[in-house]
Amino acid sequence: MKEVKLFLGPQHPGMHGNYSVQMYVDGDIVKKARPTPGFLHRGFEKLMERRLWMGNLALIPRICVVEPDINEMVYAQGIEMLAKVEIPEKAHWIRMMILEMARLAIHIMGLGGIGGPTGLYTLTYWAIAQRDLILDLFEEITGARVYHMYIVPGGVRKQLPDGILEKLSELLDELEVKIPEYRELGLKHPIIHKRLKDNIMLPEDVVWEVGITGIGMRSATNKEYDLRKVQPYARYDQVEFDVPVANYSDALTRVNIKYKEIFQSIRILRQVIEKMPKEGEVRTKISTGSALRWKVPAGMVYSAIESSRGEYGYFIVSDGKEMPYRIAVRGASYPQGLLGIEKYLVDCRIDDASLWMDTMGVCSPEIDR
Amino acid sequence: MNERKSFFAPVKAWKYLLKKPVTIKKEDVFDNPREASDQYRGFHQNDWDKCIGCGTCASICPTNAISMVEIASLKIEDGKKNERPALDYGRCSFCALCVDICVSDSLKMTKEYVHLSKDIDSFYFIPDINGIHNTQEKQGYVRDETSELLDLERVKMAHEDVSRKNSFIEIVKGYSMEMALAESARCVECGICTATCPAHMNIPEYIRSIYENDLKGAVTHLYKTNPLSNVCGRICTHLCEGACSLAVRGEAISIRWLKRYIVDNTPIEDYEEAVLSFVTEPVNGKVGIVGSGPSGLSAAYYLRTLGYEVDVYEKRAIPGGVISYGGPEYRLPEASVQKDIGMIKKTGVNFITNTKVGTDITLEQLKEKYDAVFLGIGFSLSRPLNIPGSDHKNVEYAIPLLAETRDYLRGSSKMPDVHEKVVVIGGGNVAFDVARTLLRLQIEKYGKVNVAMASLENRDILPADLEELEEGEEEGIIGSFGYGPEEIVVENNKIVGLKVNKVISIFDEDKRFNPKYDKTDSYVIEATQVYISTGQMPEYDMITDDMKEKMEIVRGKIITGEYGQVENLPWLFAGGDIVRGPDIINGVANGHDSAYGIDLYLQSKNK
Ligand code: SF4
Ligand code: SF4
Ligand code: SF4
Q1: Alpha-carbon distance B59 to nearest alpha carbon in chain A (angstroms)
Q2: pTM over 0.95
Q3: What is the ipTM of this complex?
Q4: In which domain, by residue range, is A187 found?
Q5: Nearest-angstrom CA–CA distance, B398 and B483
Q6: What is the pLDDT of residues B206-226, one digit of tens each?
Q7: Measured from the CB, is residue B231 less than 6 Å from ligand 2?
Q8: Which atom of ligand 1 is nearest to the CA of B66?
Q9: The dihedral of CA A109, A113, A114, A120: what is its sign?
Q10: Which domains does chain B have, with CATH numbers?
Q11: Is there a contact between B186 and A293 if contact means CB atoms under 8 Å apart?
């Protein structure tokens, strides 16, 4: 039978962002897959070299739309490493809170996201509604719903508004009731099982071969490799949480781990509410002068944190001037989203391609940058 | 690890069929929109009364969404431009960095987040206090201490402690490189200071050069408008700092000390190269300059750089006028003055010293000898004070004392005759110069201080800088500020003191100088010598009556055209104190402008 070439994306409801995979299919089996990045290439790395250290803050959250805060964190952390500044204690806790809220938001969306390719849209609608409640809190804390620009070099941009911890606590109560319903509706659903179980496998050797981190790695290798644990930043060393792992990575396992991680995030946030210092500064200066003339000492640094998709990092080079000399982004989904697709989407069914994207954790803007 | 599948579990979701949807209804999106949070970063609003048009918001904007637009109806004042930021919402990313850096706190954001229009131009607008949809009350994101992006505190300058009074050592120590870099990093490069500086110096440019550690470039910027940067870097009246944007919410940039940092720290070869780089090929034309004070020196330098042959006439032995014979050594060290003058000499300006125009050579002769003449003679006479006893031989004046002291410190004259108990009349900076010079001489001669001051103005309205008052008192000056002199009390032909009365008011209803005293609050300040420092005036003895008739002199000042040209006497130009009143930087500015004027004049003549 003749091979047919099909496009998944850049305009496709099952695609994550303006990304494209060209699939050569035989029947409904993918025989060859060619990722076609570039639709979302906005030249972030180059743009960063032309913007002030502070000005970049308006740019970088856009590298990953659904989980923007990780960009702010790696960036700020890297600058603080170069400038050798210690940020106030409270800022560490606020950062951890922001990052976990962001993780909750994207995990809930990711969990609901499998509703799309499987036809269980209720799950997706629920997830969007729930995520909005988190965005409401973000709006109150940072002044914006999606691009927060809140974690800044030297700490965070503003003190927390009054009463926000109580509101967060209430939201967590609500999520703790609501999220188990996802399990009832989604994770136990026979159709979901049919689609995800023993399907879209990620063998351990592929993890090592292409360098997959995050849930992908943890689901396939039984390794508790989570930067929050192995290389703690913010105050992750002062809170208790587990890192769910498995040694059999089918799509269902990965979704299950995501589900469990949601509760670990809730657990961390509860501890943050309890342990965060009530008083104190939240920002120090990283440089003298006005933000137009901040300088970061010359040097280079690799700053990395755990994103919802794995290790997310910036390699930052400063030549001591007002703008970065070079910043390279390690998008967490680069291995699975680019190399993984080319090599291992082969032999999947057409309709599983979207599930690959979803359960492997692929964020196309961070691949394109 | 994984959940078991269950046929019935999903059915539980059906309960939501009976619940209210969480989605906002379509009608509500427009008619009853959800109120955003209190810190929401929505459309901007800008309080025009507070905004100074500095453009700092535009400089930080990472998306170039802000352009500064000239508003004709706004006045340009010191510290204010007639521009306001215009926002392009096709670009804005709502990051609010512009709000966080606004120097005046005028720029804020509102909670307004919906703007729908078919008119593309409506997405480009100049916000005022009402915001985009009359949303003044819906204030959202504002700057606070934590989100501040300016550095409001200046780098403190180190001063010599009070033991400084034992000598004429320079009081202000100057910035180190580290301090200067930190201070220069505070500047937002708005250029508001440039407009206020009488010489319109390229202030943001030279501050940027410091920030980039390019001192040679900085000297180049300085010499574009000011060849007396060593002097001005020390004793300029720094009007620019009063206008600096940073002063709206914090402390102005130390513009003066940064200038001094440049001149003190640039390697001399670089310095010289920068200064001489302006000198061009010789051109036809000879200019005579009367007086080698700031305006004369400035005119001489710029004329030389234009290629003219320049002769400067100075009545004293050393050129410089007020900078060589006025400012006290502890503010203006000899070496700095000589550096400025030396550089000007190096450009090829010819100085003819010990030659008083009017006596040794007449203005008429200069007119014959040169193609144009610049008059920069300054206010070289002390204004006399006529009160009983002021004709006593122990009544002295400010200018001769300051000049003699400079000569004494150079080793070319004996120490001025200072008594053990003196009183200085006056409350300006020069009066403090006199008092503080006297006390230093007293320490040298008698080992102790006894200097009193009396001025009409009380502490609150003292014309002198606060710094002078504080430092002077620290050094031991006893001030009777707000007490006007009535008479110098003379007994047996010897001064015994100065009688003063409390001042009730200095000016009358018509704002005319007419002090009123409360004679019940009166006392005698003991002293055997009185110094008068109540102002200076010009000496126009070289100007012939014939010329005087042709020119206009209003209250001691010569009226000139824009570039210093004296009306009806096209060959004569004037500048400095005699045109704008005493201030060194005014002189520098006039000298620069007159050089331009003379160049225009000579070019038109040569045609
Ligand atoms: S909010 Fe940000 S992008 Fe918009 S005008 Fe201000 S600085 Fe520029
Ligand atoms: S920074 Fe503030 S004061 Fe300056 S132009 Fe912008 S809005 Fe006006
Ligand atoms: S010195 Fe002040 S007024 Fe001048 S450019 Fe810098 S910030 Fe603006």
Answers
A1: 8
A2: no
A3: 0.90
A4: 4-368
A5: 19
A6: 999 999 999 999 999 999 999
A7: no
A8: 5
A9: positive
A10: 26-125 (3.30.70.3270), 153-278 (1.10.1060.10), 286-372+541-607 (3.50.50.60), 381-536 (3.50.50.60)
A11: yes
